[in-house]
Design goal:
923 residues; alpha/beta; Rossmann fold; 8 domains; five-stranded parallel sheet
Length: 923
């Protein structure tokens, strides 16, 4: 590296080694060329600057000799040479390798920079280039002139830098420099530094010395700056602290939150609290807003990091923070009151009439903040905390800004700001994966960006894979302040013992959220939920439902995994008992006429008094119950079996067939073979497989359930199993075997004495006769079933009966009656959320229509069947759409639907496949 110097002795360094550049005249020549680097210097000007009025006899020859030797010397340096240009010479080099030009460049950058801290660093870098007297060891009129000009530039730069030092609170650095010999501006800086340092007496003494000197030497009074400073000292006005840290250069997004702070802190004297979990970027947001609005607070800005939740530091006591603020406001240590209460009172007095912004970062709780609130109503306060600081909101009128995670657009913007849009565009799938796994947490995204920046050749896909494998490990930089585990750990360790236990136990929740009652059951303490929400480790994202951020949940799961297994099992048992009890109560309202299919469940039961509240609870908690059941330890096998039996009818009605298959398969694996519970689980799996179109597998399960029902003489299991077997036989066109099974199912149902079970068997028999074309016989059975439904007040039975009667009366040539039955059946289905009924009723209703009337009904049925995974009803809808479009002349649509129907019928093994093949052959 080449270093060309004139700010001191004229020197040339190559790789840190100083080169011998000859005697004084030769150095003079080099100095002239260095000062005009990149510009041609005429020979006459070179002669004048080097020798002045006493040139040698043949100056051009002497100059040529010096240039020749310098050219040889510099020729070995990379990028440096002396070239002849017209009647002169030019030194070709990068101006930044010449210290004086780098000095000028840094000063220009500092003057253009709006951030004081950055500008100060640039001034420091520029002044560090000076190694003494410029062009020392050289002596000529021209050298003297240049030296004086450079010294003036340096003096101005020092003064500009010291103004910045005072503005940024670095007054100690000003005092560390030697006292100036003269100059009003430098004297004013030193006097202000003494005042800011809490030494008003010394400041006044130096002011008087300057005033006297000005009067003696110039017969003048001090200028406006010194007079204003003198007045400020005399009236006790403190310094103007500028303590804000530099705003994060990677800050992006949060426009809505910045606007919210504008509103919250609009009036003087306002207190705003930014609260949220660790890692969301609360400090970034607070400092950004404070920096952007610093001009609103002419008396300065106070800032303290209270380290309330800091993995690397103990919390800063409020008393220490008060003393720090008093120092920033100009109070010398010797002037501090001895007691904390006195110090706090002095702090309130000094802030009572000032317009200050006070930023209290990372506060632990309300007590941490209260002693730092200013006096009067002219100051504004911005607090950040992982706690909601409810006491501050309640007793001090603070305004809250709960900080949420970044949305996907904001998160992508943050990554693009750090890594560049081109980098993101090159690997869009990896970026999407990274965004999903960081979950909008600002610190997680910043860690990802830092890791990529540290290894620019590494592909984003590799980091995404690391996040998939172990997110918390991938988001650990090895430094406490940049590790998510450490950030979460600081919040966790600040919790009271009961809340800390609750936090760990929430790591057992297998889904993204949990209801209030379930959380209370799991934790055994309702208050713990409130404490965790206040600590921003838990969020009530919907009324009565709570969730943790994914990354926080992973941390909680790591903690609970280290707990005693008995503790974990006890907590899981409490949660499972809660779900069993509440599910049983909900099902007693959802399907009140068949308690015989559900096991008895003890424990406290809620009162689902509101209409549809039972169904709403089942819908809200379905995912949680199924996830808990499928991840339960073997010790909770009985709970899983009972939960599956309890939810059987709900999952069937709501057409959650794939989820039902998972739950019932789990229950079957955990049930004891040969027991009635095992038999009912076999039936539940078999029946669910029917809806999913897997008839062979369904039959295998049902064929195990039926012999057990007969052996146990369990008429309930026999009736249910025979109905399901008959359904398979009917679908496959084996009518006699289906009739035999339906007859036996009806007989078994009547032996149980359960009216609803008999009504179901009668309805199934009616459906069977309808499929056989015996519409009159079908109507007879269906009306019998309908009377039972009416007697019981059972919409669950009445709806399917109405739909079946619609098909029967259509077959009897009574379309108006058929339409009325279908419309009533669809009302039952939609009011009761019976998706299974709705899809079959739509298909059957559409089958009684033609052309344009049928198409929208089939389309609705197809959409519902696809959502439910009901393959048979998908086949019916595709078949019907194919026929309807064919009749309407839409040949392309007809063929597409018929081909889809053929695939489904073939998979089902249904006889309708032959009819569809024939239609396709004719197309």
């Amino acid at each position: 590296m080449v270093d060309l110097r004139v700010l001191g002795p004229v020197e040339v360094l190559a790789g840190g080694t100083r080169l011998d550049i000859g005697h004084a005249r030769q150095r003079d020549v080099l100095a002239v060329l260095l000062l005009d680097v990149g510009r041609a210097v005429p020979v006459a000007r070179l002669v004048d600057r080097v020798w002045g009025e006493r040139p040698p006899r043949q100056p051009r020859n002497s100059l040529y000799a010096y240039v020749s030797r310098l050219r040889t010397l510099l020729g070995a340096l990379d990028g440096v040479t002396i070239e002849r240009e017209r009647d002169g010479y030019v030194l070709v080099a990068d101006p930044q390798t010449v210290d004086v030009h780098r000095f000028e460049s840094l000063l220009q950058q500092a003057k253009k920079t709006t951030d004081d801290h950055t500008a100060l660093a640039l001034y420091d870098e520029a002044l560090a280039l000076w190694r003494g007297t410029p062009l020392s060891e050289l002596d000529s009129p021209w050298v003297a002139e240049v030296r004086a000009a450079l010294e003036r530039k340096r003096e101005t730069a020092v003064l500009d830098r010291d103004d910045l030092r005072l503005r940024t609170g670095a007054h100690a650095a000003v005092l560390a420099e030697p006292a100036p010999d003269a100059g009003e501006r430098a004297a004013a800086q030193r006097i202000e530094a003494l005042f800011l340092d809490g030494r008003p007496a010394d400041a006044l003494r130096e002011y008087e010395e300057v005033r006297s000197r000005l009067a003696d030497e110039l017969g003048a009074d001090p200028g406006p700056r010194l007079r204003g400073l003198h007045e400020r000292i005399l009236t006790g006005g403190g310094p103007e602290p500028r303590q804000l840290p530099a705003a994060a250069p990677s800050f992006s997004g949060r426009a809505a939150e910045l606007a919210a702070l504008d509103r919250l802190l609009a009036p003087d004297g306002a207190v705003a609290v930014i609260s949220g979990a660790g890692g969301l970027g609360k400090t970034w947001l607070a400092v950004r807003w404070a920096t952007d609005h610093a001009s609103r607070f002419p008396d300065g800005q106070l800032y303290v990091d209270l380290h309330g939740f800091d993995p690397a530091h103990e919390p800063v006591p409020a008393e220490r923070a008060v003393r720090g603020f008093l120092g920033a406001l100009g109070v010398a240590p010797a002037s501090l009151p001895p007691e904390p209460d006195g110090q706090a009172a002095l702090y309130r007095s000094l802030t009572a009439r000032r317009r200050l912004l006070i930023v209290l970062d990372n506060a632990q709780d309300t007590r941490h903040v209260t002693p730092l609130l200013p006096g009067g109503s002219s100051c504004s306060v911005l607090v950040t905390s992982r706690h909601e600081l409810g006491g501050l909101l309640t007793t001090h009128g603070a305004r809250a800004l709960p900080l949420r995670t970044l949305d996907e657009g904001q998160a992508r913007e943050l990554l693009a700001h750090r890594l560049g849009a081109a980098r993101l565009a090159a690997e869009p799938e990896a970026v999407q994966d990274i965004l999903a796994r960081c979950g909008g947490m600002a610190l997680a995204l910043a860690i990802v960006a830092a890791r990529v920046a540290a290894h620019p050749d590494r592909r984003l896909a590799a980091l995404a894979a690391e996040l998939r494998e172990s997110r918390l490990d991938a988001l650990d930089t090895g430094e406490l302040t940049a590790s998510l585990r450490a950030v979460f750990d600081a919040s966790y360790r600040a919790l009271p013992p009961a809340a800390a236990t609750a936090f760990r136990l929430l790591g057992l929740v297998p889904t993204e959220d949990i209801g209030r009652a379930a959380a209370t059951a799991l934790l055994g303490d309702a208050r713990a939920v409130r404490v965790l929400c206040a600590a921003r480790l838990l969020e009530e994202h919907q009324p009565g439902r709570f969730r943790m951020h994914d990354l926080v949940k992973l941390y909680a799961a790591e903690l609970v995994a280290a707990d005693d297994p008995a503790t974990r099992l006890a907590a899981s048992t409490r949660l499972f008992d809660h779900y069993l009890s509440w599910a049983s109560a909900a099902m007693d309202r959802f399907s009140p006429h068949e308690p015989y299919v559900r096991p008895r469940v003890d424990g406290p039961r809620p009162d689902f008094a509101e209409v549809q509240s039972d169904r709403a609870w089942l819908d809200a908690e379905r995912a949680s119950m199924l996830a808990l059941a499928t991840s339960a330890p073997e010790a909770l096998a009985d709970h899983v079996v009972r939960l599956a039996a309890t939810l059987w009818r709900y999952l069937y009605v709501a057409a959650h067939h794939n989820e039902a298959l998972t739950l019932h398969t789990t229950a079957l694996a955990l049930a004891t073979p040969g027991t009635k519970e095992w038999g009912f689980a076999q039936h539940a799996v078999g029946m669910t497989l029917i809806f999913l179109g897997r008839f062979d597998a369904a039959a295998a399960h049902l064929e195990q359930a039926l012999p057990l029902a007969l052996r146990l003489r369990n008429d309930l299991l026999e009736s249910m199993t025979r109905n399901s077997i008959a359904t398979i036989e009917d679908i496959r066109g084996r009518r006699p075997e289906a009739r035999r099974q339906y007859d036996a199912a009806l007989a078994a149902a009547r032996r149980t004495g359960y009216a609803l079970l008999e009504g179901i068997a009668l309805c199934n028999m009616g459906e069977h006769h309808r499929w056989c074309g015996n519409h009159q016989e079908a109507a007879k059975y269906l009306h019998q079933s309908g009377r039972i439904a009416e007697d019981l007040g059972s919409a669950g039975l009445g709806g399917p009966v109405l739909a079946a009667l619609g098909s029967a009366y259509a077959g009897l040539g009574r379309p108006e009656d058929a339409d009325a039955y279908f419309r009533r059946a669809l009302e039952y289905a939609r009011e009761g959320g019976n998706t299974n009924l709705e899809v079959t009723a739509l298909n059957d209703f559409a089958a009684t229509k033609s052309g344009s009337e049928a198409i929208p009904l089939y389309e609705k049925a197809l959409a519902l069947a696809r959502r439910a995974g009901h393959l048979r009803e998908q086949a019916f809808a595709q078949h019907g759409l194919g026929v309807a479009h064919r009749a309407a002349g839409n040949d392309a649509e007809a063929v597409a639907h018929l081909e889809a129907a053929l695939v489904a019928y073939t998979e089902l093994g249904a006889p309708e496949a032959e009819e569809v093949r024939a239609l396709l052959a004719e197309s």
